Amino acid sequence: MSKNKKEPLISVVMPTYNNDWCVSDAIRSILGQTYSNWELIIIDDGSTDTTKDVLKFWEKLDDRIRPIYRKKNKGIAYSRNEGNAKAQGHLIVVMDSDDLMLAERLMAAEDTYQKTKYDVLYTSYYRKQQGGAIEELQEVPEEFTDDLLEPIQRIPHLTMVATKETFTKVPYRNDKRVNDDWFWCVDLYNAGSKFVGLNVPTMIHQVNPSGVSLASQAQYKKDYKDCQINKELREASLKKTK
């Protein structure tokens, strides 16, 4: 597949587990990007359905698609960290295998980085029920404030892009199989990361009534005491970077 070598490489990291029914749609949405110099690292986290066969089909069609096949399930945080470690792009794009990218997502990520030099980018997105029509636009504040992370995370992880350096400095917590995204965002805050909001939709989030998202809501209260922003720590981290 042809690439525009003048464009910096962007890595998309997408864990998947038993999602043979939807992962092809996610891949198609990446193939449809207006930005062409990307790699897609897909981590098959020990799927027991036909996900592996689906990924092998796509791997043969486009050499930018690079699956990692794991026999044992190790969880989404471990999978994200493994994919991020192998990523070669200067930006790493968060992607879930049951969501869809809008065509300008990667272009928006690169353009915004060139303008702002963010550590972490988050954007607005569309929300829909799986199999249904788009229901609503979820807007985001472009100015980051502390209250976006407490008492719970209110910036959408599914839209996030971060620099390779940021992911190396602040990985996901491997022991978190639920709320890994919330813990990661708080860790980013405490590390002094620069958040930038873009109120332009880049994703379609497909709500799965039986998925982990609902389970994570029940876990928030249990996790809250261990997942809080630390303003003093953030200030200290920011001083170190100056």
Short synopsis of the structure:
With 242 residues, the protein is α/β, with parallel strands linked by helices. The protein is built from 8 helices and 9 strands. Strands 1, 2, 3, 4, 5, 6, 7, 8 and 9 form a 9-stranded mixed beta sheet that branches.
Q: Could you please describe the fold and organization of this structure?
A:
With 242 residues, the protein is of the alpha/beta class. The protein has a single domain (10-241), classed as Spore Coat Polysaccharide Biosynthesis Protein SpsA, Chain A, CATH 3.90.550.10. The protein is 34% helix and 24% strand. It has 8 helices and 9 strands. Strands 1, 2, 3, 4, 5, 6, 7, 8 and 9 form a 9-stranded mixed β-sheet that branches. β2 (38-45), α2 (51-61) and β3 (65-70) form a beta-alpha-beta unit. The chain is globular. The mean pLDDT is 89.
